[in-house]
């Protein structure tokens, strides 16, 4: 199993696709673990909280997340794994729709989002809606129980 964590076993081209960051390497390792049959893999991206300097923080974090997750989904699809592998992007809280005094966004349990890909989930689907200010869910509210029921069913 130690070999699964050795990303040098991947081609340079594959490593370059994912990118040079620690998060990219961890996601590549997650793909390797899934490919080897590990049924559940979690990758945590440290320091996502943007209670201050939200705009600067997200200029760094969001492009990395977008790139690495798109690469993972493409890689899984090319390997024929996406139909049997579910990829979930989720955090413990949503973020306030308003900016605080430190130019950041705080934890917000009233409305949050996640993305689910693979295992038959139709790509590009959107479910639910908040009010115009993003303060509360006005359509299609899903609690944790229904979210996880969807995950387990798929």
Describe the structure in your own words:
With 154 residues, this protein is α+β, with helices and mostly antiparallel strands. The protein has helices at residues 12-18, 22-35, 54-78, 144-153, and strands spanning 87-89, 94-95, 107-108, 115-117, 129-130, 137-139. The strands form 3 sheets. It has a two-stranded antiparallel ribbon with strand order 1-4. Strands 2-3 form a two-stranded antiparallel ribbon. It has a two-stranded antiparallel sheet with strand order 5-6. The two termini are 27 Å apart. The model has no long low-confidence stretch (mean pLDDT 93).
In short:
With 154 residues, this protein is α+β, with helices and mostly antiparallel strands. The chain is 36% helix and 10% strand.
Low-confidence spans: none
Radius of gyration: 17 Å
In DSSP terms (H or I, runs of 4 or more residues), the helix count works out at: 4
Oligomer: single chain
As a percent range, the share of strand residues is 5-15%
Helical content (DSSP H or I, runs of 4+): 25-40%
Distance between termini?
A: 27 Å
Major β-sheet annotation: 2 strands, antiparallel
């Amino acid at each position: 199993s130690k070999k699964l964590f050795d990303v040098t076993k991947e081609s340079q081209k594959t490593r370059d696709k994912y990118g040079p960051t620690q998060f990219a390497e961890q996601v590549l390792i997650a793909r390797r673990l899934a490919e080897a049959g590990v049924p559940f893999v979690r990758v945590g991206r440290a320091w996502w909280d943007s209670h201050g300097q939200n705009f600067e923080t997200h200029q760094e974090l969001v492009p990395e997340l977008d790139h690495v997750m798109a690469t993972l989904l493409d890689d899984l699809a090319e390997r024929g794994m996406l139909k049997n592998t579910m990829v979930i992007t989720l955090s413990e809280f949503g973020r306030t729709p308003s900016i605080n005094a430190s130019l950041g966004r705080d934890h917000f349990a009233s409305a949050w989002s996640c993305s689910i890909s693979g295992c038959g989930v139709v790509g590009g689907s959107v479910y639910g809606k908040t009010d115009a200010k993003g303060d509360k869910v006005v359509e299609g509210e899903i609690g944790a129980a229904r979210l996880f029921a969807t995950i387990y069913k798929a």
